Amino acid sequence: MKQFLAFVKKEFYHVLRDKRTLLILFGMPVAQILIFGFALTNEVKNEKILIVDNAKDVSSQRIISEISASKYFQIENSVSDPSQIVPSFKKGIIRVALIFPADFHNDLMHLHKAQIQIIADASDPNVATTLTNYISAIIQDYQLNLNQSYKIPFRIIPEIRMLYNPELKGAPNFVPGVMALVLMLICVLMTAISIVKEKETGTMEILLVSPFKPVLVILAKAVPYLLLSLINVATILLLSVFVLQVPVRGSVLLLFAESTLFIITCLTLGIFISIKTNTQQVAMLVSLMGMLLPTVLFSGFMFPIENMPVALQVFSNIIPSKWFYIIVKSIMIKGVGFSVIWKETLALVVITLFLFFISIKSFKIRMA
Amino acid sequence: MVTANNLVKTYGKKNEILAVDHVSFSVNEGEIFGLIGPDGAGKTSIFRMFTTLLLPDSGDATVAGFNVIKNYKQIRNTVGYMPGRFSLYPDLSVEENLNFFATVFGTTIQQNYDLIKEIYVQLEPFKKRRAGKLSGGMKQKLALCCALIHKPTVLFLDEPTTGVDPVSRKEFWEMLKRLKAQGITMLVSTPYMDEAGLCDRIALIQNGKILSIETPANISASYPDKLFAVKANKMSTLLRALSKFSEVITSYAFGEYAHVAAKKDASDFENKLKKYLEEEEIENVTIKQITASIEDCFIKLLK
Amino acid sequence: MPEVVIKTDKLTKRFGDFIAVNEISFEVFRGEIFGFLGANGAGKTTAMRMLIGLSKPTSGSAVVAGFDVYKETENIKKNIGYMSQKFSLYEDLTVLENISFYGGIYGLSDAEIKTKSDQLVTELGLQNQAKKLVASLPLGWKQKLSFSVALLHEPKIIFLDEPTGGVDPLTRRQFWDLIYAASDKGITIFVTTHYMDEAEYCNRISIMVDGKIEALDSPQNLKKGFNANSMDEVFYELARGAKRAE
Questions:
Q1: What is the spatial distance between Cα A32 and Cα C79, in angstroms, rounded to a whole number?
Q2: Which domains does chain A have, with CATH numbers?
Q3: Chain A nearest-CA residue for B82
Q4: Distance, CA of B88 to CA of B97 (rounded, Å)
Q5: What digits encode the pLDDT tens for the residues B198-246?
Q6: Residue of B85, B86, B167 best to disrupt the C interface, most CBs of C under 10 A
Q7: Does this complex have an ipTM over 0.90?
Q8: Which has the least CB within 10 A, A156, B48, B289, C156?
Q9: By C-alpha distance, which of A55, A53, A109, A43 is closest to A77?
Q10: Does residue C168 lie within any of the structural domains?
C-alpha cells in the first residue's frame, strides 16, 4: 500500500509541475464547450432569403411580411428580376429563395389553388431541408388563417411537439457530445503519454529493476488524471447550465458516477496505448488522430449511427464515447434514471475491464 | 557473487548484430570488478542481462545466487542499479527522488542513511532542487544514492563516469572505494582505461568478446613486449619517424610521450633508437623504459 | 607573427543572474591545435556556441575567421566546420549520401562533391562501406567520417566538441592522426576533451573554471607553472576548487 501511495504522490508531482499539460487539461474542455455552444450551431437564425415577387399583390405581400417578421429569416432582397437568382446562389449570398408567380393572389382567391416556388441550396441537404420546412410552415400558417372562414371537412392538423428541446436549440445536442468527445481525448492523451515518457526518458529502466508491480504503476498513473478530469466534468456542467442555459434534468450524482466510469475507461485506453507505443510522439499521434476520427464519426453526436451501414453500426459498439453520449443525453436532457441506462453502463464496464486486463498482460517487464 | 556463463545477445531482425559473444566471467564477493571497453563493446547489454532487463539469447547468469531468467524478481528486489544515462525523475527534487525509491524498495532514507551519508551530505544543500537542474557530477551522486538506498548486496554501475570531467571522476571512484569497505560487491563498466587501475579485477571487452580477465597488475605484467616512453619536440614528426624504424613493433601517442614497443629480447634498444632519431633530426629526445598501462595492453589486444 | 583566426575580448554570456561565461579573452592562431578544457558546467559549451554563431553573447566581442559573432554569424558558419559526439551523420543515409548532403549544404558543386567523396572514402579506407548506411558503421568509423565531412568545404577552423568520447584507444589515436593531418594543412583546430592525454597533443590549452579562463598556455609551460607531472595534475589543481560542480 505504501508503495502505491508513493507512486500516486509521484504522479501528482509530475502532473502538477507540467504547466503546459495542465493548460491543455483544463483549457481544452472549456474552449470546446464555448466554441460548440456559441459559435457552432445548425439552428436557423437570420437566414438570408431572396424573394422574387412577380405578383406584388396583397397575398404575396402578406406572406413576405410574415417571413420578414419571423426571427428565422432576413430578407436579402425583394426583386422582380429572376435573373438575380442563380448568381446569388452561386456567390453564396443566399441559400434559399422564394418565388411568387405573377397572378398569385388572383389564383388563390379564384382558382383556390396557387403555386409558389421555394428553391434551396442542397449542397448541405440538412440545412436545405430545415430551411424549406420553415418556409413551408410559415406558408401553412398563412393558409390556416385564410381558411378560417371556409368550412372544409376532414382536415388533419398535426400538432407538433418537440420533446426535451422545444426550442430546437443546438446546445442540448452539443453539450453531451462535447463531454463525450473532450473527456475522451483528454483522458486518453494524458495517460497515453505517461508511461511512454518514462520509457523514453529512461526512468523506466531503474523502476523495472525494483520490487515494483505493474498493476500499481498503472493504477497510480490513472489516479491524478481521474481527479482532474472530474473537475473538468464539473466545469463543463457549470458552463452548460449557467452559460449555455442547458440544465441537467436528471440526477447530478448519477451523471458524476457515470462520468467517473467513462473517465476510467478512457484512462485505461490511454494506458494501453502508452504500453504499446515507444515514443511520446507516436503515443500522441495515436491518441489524438487515432481516437479523434472514430470518436467524432461513431459516437453518434455528429452523425446518426442508425443511418450507417450495419457493419459500421456494429463497429460503433466498441467506441466508448458512443455509450457515454447516450448516457449523458439520457440523464441531462431526458432526465431518466439508472434503470434506463444500465445496458449502456454495462457496456462501458465491459470495455474498461477488457482494456485493463490487456494492459496488464502487455506491460513489458523487460527492455527488449 | 555474480556469474556469467557463455552469455550471448544478438540484435536486429535477423539477429545479425552479435552484441555479446559468449561472455563468461565471475565476480567475487566484495570486489570491485571493472568491465573495460569502448562504446559498442557490449558492456550495457551485459549489464542489462545481469539486472534482468534483457533476456540472453543463450547462456545464463546468476546474481547473488539467483538465476537471471527464472528468479528475476528476487534479483530486482535486491540489486542496486545505476544505468548509463541519468534515469531519475528530472521534475522531482533530490529529496523526493530519494524518498520515492526508498519507498519502492520498502525502506526509508533513515534506515540505511549511514551507507549513503558521505555522498548525501554533498547533495543535502540542494535537496529541494529539481533533479533535472543539477550538474552532471551531482546527478551521478544522486543516482548512486538512489541505487544504494535499500542496502543492496550487489551494485551495478553502467558507465557512471562517462562524459564527466576528470576531477568528478576521481571523486566518484573515491566514493566507490569507501563503499567497498562496507562490503558491497560492485560491477562497474567504463571506457576510461585509467579507471581500470582502480578496480580489483578487470575484464577487457571489445566487439562483444572478452579479451582478458585479470587483476590490473597481472594484465600489465603480461604485456608481451618491452615498452619505452619516448619524448621529443613534436609528436607528429616523432611518430612518423618511429613508424619507419625496423625494431619498433608499435608506436602510439600517449600524451607527452610516445609509447614504443620493442621485442622482449631486443638488446640495447634505447641507444639504437636514440641514434636513429638523431639521424632523423628529431630534437630533444628522451627515452625511458616503462611498464605497460592498461591502455597499452588494450591496444595490444585489439590488434 | 602568425595570423589570428579567433579573437575574443571580455566575451560574456548571462542567463538572468547567472553568468555562464565571464569575460573571457583569448586568441587562437592559424594552424594551431587549441585545447579548450574545463569541468562540466564550467561554461565551455556555452563559450563554444557563441564562437560558432549559435548563441548571441551578452557582452564583449569575438571575431571568428574574420567575422563578427554578433552580426556575421552566417558567414562564420560558412567558414567553419563543427563536429561533436552528439551531432553526427544521418544514420539512415549511406556514407556517400551523407557526404553529398553536407557538400550540398555548403554549396559544393556536383563535381566537387564527387572528387571529395572519392578522396574521403579512399583516405578513410571506406571503399567497402561507401554505399552502406552509416548506422552499420562502428562508432570509431562514424567519428572519423564525421570529422572528414566537417572538413568537406575546406573551412579555416574546425570546432570539435568531445569528438573521441567513449571511443576505443586505437581509434582515438587514429582520430588524432586525422587532426594532425588537418593541422599540417593549416586548418586551425579548436577541440574540447575530457581525456587529459589528448590535452598534451594540443599546441596550447585553456582551462575554464566557473566561467573564467584560469589558465592558458602550452601543456609544457602549464606543467612547469603548476609543478605538475601531467596535465591531469594541472587540471585537478585548477578544477577541484570549482564552485560550479553543484
A1: 51
A2: 2-40+170-362 (no CATH), 47-147 (3.40.1710.10)
A3: A206
A4: 7
A5: 999 999 998 899 998 999 999 999 999 999 999 888 888 888 888 888 8
A6: B167
A7: no
A8: A156
A9: A53
A10: yes
